[in-house]
Amino acid sequence: MSKLDILLFQVYPYVALAVFLLGSWARYDLDAYTWRTGSSLLLSGRGMRLGSNWFHLGVIAILCGHFVGLLTPHWAYERFLGAGTKQLLAMAIGGSFGVMCLAGMTILLWRRLFDARIRTTGSRRDLLVLLLLYAQLLLGLASIIVSSDHMDGMQMMKLGEWAQRIVTFRGDAAAHIADAHWIYKTHVLLGLTLLLVFPFTRLVHVWSIPLGYLSRPYQRVRRRQLASRNVR
């Protein structure tokens, strides 16, 4: 294990997580009016619904899969799910939602690059976020191909041990990822970089999960013609 591994996979994660949490809190507290999605639907609806739905459904499933897969201790499921089976499930489910997310993101990126109105009103940060997410998704799909060369699940166990040691503030986490394939390492580093830039982009809207929609009463909407007749 080199000093660079220690810097990138032992120190950098805490820098990224600190900026992610403190930066998000500071932006909400000091600049709440910029806390929004910045949707371009009003500018152009072409491909927006399909691209946005595919992207969000795919990315939510991928994030949940990463969270559960990396942070669940092996002892919690080893009696009924082996490491190799877990890896196979992760490859199948993650690959399916990854392709869905890639298709949706391709549509959104195409809109951002080639729709004149969206390109004019958009910002460089919006484009940068899309490109970073696109690269991260391609790396994730590429890691499935790399994983197919070793189906014993041991590499996944090492990555999970690295993540668990990071979130529980245990030392020697970098040792569990030092000998990993460069695609895994790049995937992890880009993920940490996304956390680092998170508070400075529109990604902050991830915090605003609209759980209230699940319990609020139905909204009554009247057509304008019917409303005018009732007034008369």
Topology, element by element:
Elements: H1 3-30, H2 48-71, H3 83-114, H4 116-121, H5 124-147, H6 154-167, H7 182-197, H8 224-231
Helix pairs in contact: 1-7, 2-3, 3-5, 5-7
β-strand percent reads under 5%
The helix/strand series, from N terminus to C terminus, equals HHHHHHHH
Rg, Cα atoms, Å: 21 Å
Q: Strand count, sense and closure of the main sheet? A: none
Count of helices?
A: 8
Shape, principal axes of CA atoms = globular
Structural class based on helices, strands and sheet pairing: mainly alpha
Low-confidence stretches: none
Mean pLDDT: 88
The total of beta strands comes to: 0
Helix content: 55-70%
Query: What is the quaternary state of this protein?
Result: single chain
Report how far apart the termini are: 81 Å
Describe this structure in words.
This protein has 232 residues and is mostly helical. The protein is built from eight helices and no strands. The protein is globular. The model has no long low-confidence stretch (mean pLDDT 88).
Question: Which descriptors apply to this entry?
Answer:
232 residues; mainly alpha; 0% strand; globular
